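Researcher: Please predict.
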Amino acid sequence: MKRPTKFALAAVASLGLAAVAVPVIAQQGQMQHGGMMDGGMGNMGHHGGMMGGAQSYAMATFDTNSDGTLSPEEMTAGIQAELTTYDTDANGTLSLEEFAVMHAAHTRPMTVRAFQMHDADGDAQVTEAEMAAMVAMMQDHMSERQGDMQGMGHGMMGNN
């Protein structure tokens, strides 16, 4: 394979994995921080940043020989498997609808966990009171973070 073709394939693979991996990264952040990501996306560094999360997803999915590394062949095979699985009209591309199905499949575990976080009593129903409790917890968390950041963001213009 020519170098420009390999580069193009690598770029497409990276972008595709990043698009699929964002929900997985968020899920990992939620799990590490008891269901809430600390300060939004700021703590994704625990997982090597955005690409670290994409690599984790790709590793779990595409590392067929479990050696802890992804060969170009494993990446190509993994991407082709994703296309084969979700390209229902077999035209070699994913339409918006096909991509939405793939995205939903990849984000389902995170959605279930989010639902479970809201369902405090575990009865498989989220009530208004449970949602209000979650909102209150998030507001408390944001207030704590804002208190930690007092004085930041004023820069030199605030010193006039």
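Model: The chain has one domain: 3-118.
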